[in-house]
Fold each of these.
Amino acid sequence: MTTDETTIAVYDAKADDYAKAFSETENEPGLLRFMSRLPKGAAVLDLGCGPGVHSAAMHSCGFRVTATDASAAMVERARTHEGVMVHQSSFSDLREQGVYDGVWANFSLLHEPRSEFPGHLSRIAAALKPEGILHLAMKTGSGESRDQLGRYYTFYSADELRGFEL
């Protein structure tokens, strides 16, 4: 997850709200599509896992899930899901090489400054196995700003995102 202290503080303060709001993942099209492309028993990294609901859903489908988040409160909630290995860390801490069949980065990398994004993508590419899959969900738009809660966002156009290589 991001290292922006204000954004992390918002997620720490609102962790219970997020856990309640995002408790349902059944039939979520993006998650189902991602899981359908993975081999049986795949190793998956949930990068910026929040309360760990997606991690738990992937684990319940037979995947080996490692979940990370920079928010201590989110990590605490994610750890309540049995079978999911959870670590508190930022995107920059990703150092694994060729370990994951899939990386699930669902509305997490949008909290990073534009200048940091290529480095994060490089670390993700290195962590993926050669045929690995990246799910990247972002908010589209332009510029960088904070929302009314103080969370930092970087917005990209679809064309900008397609221009990045893994």
Amino acid sequence: MEPMRLVVLTLVAGCDVVWGVPAQYQQDAPIDVPLIDAARDSETCVTFDGAIEADVILFVNTPTQGHPTEGVMNVGVAVQSQGLLRYLVPTLTARQHIAAVTLIAPYTPSSHTCGTAVTCGSCSTIAADGRIDVEYATSMWDEPVACYAKPTTLTSWQMTGALGAMDRSAPVGHAQYAKGTDLAIDLDPAALQPWIQNGKVSVILTPSLGAVALVPQKDFPTADQACNANQAPTRLQFKVCQ
């Protein structure tokens, strides 16, 4: 009978080749401790522009009068006004979430609001630097009748001026507004969900420190197109990730 031979196989390749473990992790470790942390899957994100669905100016000095059909919204300390705007929110799948929200109000160079009923005036003579705060707001208001005193014909704000905790949130974003520039304000996406109603969300623009911003209303194309035919509308931009 041929004598039994002992064969010794020597592995000449490194462990990173044989076992698929990078060389920097070639070290002793307890068996129940993973050598490599699992990396989080990267998210895929897309951006949607929520279209303006309704808007109105809330004037402190004329509390029962709303202004829903002008071409431009005068949000300013000088006239004691705030802007209430409502936007469509994108429909999400179970895997999606809104990672960022940005309110964008392009600069309005001219309007009848800044001139007369028949003359387009320069809005730069009215606009003023200052601060603009934004709050999320209830969407339970009717554009034709909403005003500082009430949201609909048959209902009231929790507090006059939509100042109640059920009317609006705490500030979710702000910007130092410079006249003659676009207004772009990042809003807190974590505070958004409770204020989405029937696929819509509203925001309130509140000026302070002397700010006067001329914000295009959804009716600008019909009311003021002759003043600035290429005027872009306001929009609420949503970054949706999954």
